Amino acid sequence: MWAFWIAYIFTRPLGASFGDLLSQPADSGGIGLGTILTSAIFLAAIIGIVIYMSAMRRGPHSRTAINDPHKSPDSISGRASDGAPGASYFWSSVQIAV
Asked: Smallest Cα–Cα separation from 25: which of 39, 38, 42, 44?
């Protein structure tokens, strides 16, 4: 919870200042794109980042790793089994809803 508020406090003024820079008229010190175009630019950036992050998703929770029945949980996560008692039971009982 603290990480969210710290990130919010630090990024909110930066985003607002950058948005004002893009949207305000040139005589007021801005670039003069207007609020609609500035909002469209931010929306396109957010959608682009989400698509990129979804396409680059790797790890134990990626769809290809979960849907491959021939891979063991240890090979999916990239971790070597340390032979701890109950480790394989834990990984066999983990189910992720996709």
From this structure: 38
| 71 has pLDDT over 80 | no
Domain positions in the chain are 2-55
Confidence at residue 72, expressed as pLDDT on a 0 to 100 scale: 54
Give the amino acid at 22. L
Q: With 80 as the cut, is the pLDDT of residue 41 above it?
A: yes
Q: Provide the sign of the torsion angle of the four alpha carbons 41, 42, 43, 45, taken in this order.
A: positive
DSSP letters spanning 15-81: HHHHHHHHHS-GGGTS----HHHHHHHHHHHHHHHHHHHHHT--STTSHHHHT-TTS-HHHHHTPPP
Q: What angle do CA 78, 59, 83 make, to 5 degrees?
A: 30
- Is residue 20 within 8 A of residue 13, CB to CB? The reply is no
pLDDT confidence tier of residue 15, bands split at 50, 70 and 90:
confident
pTM of the model: 0.52
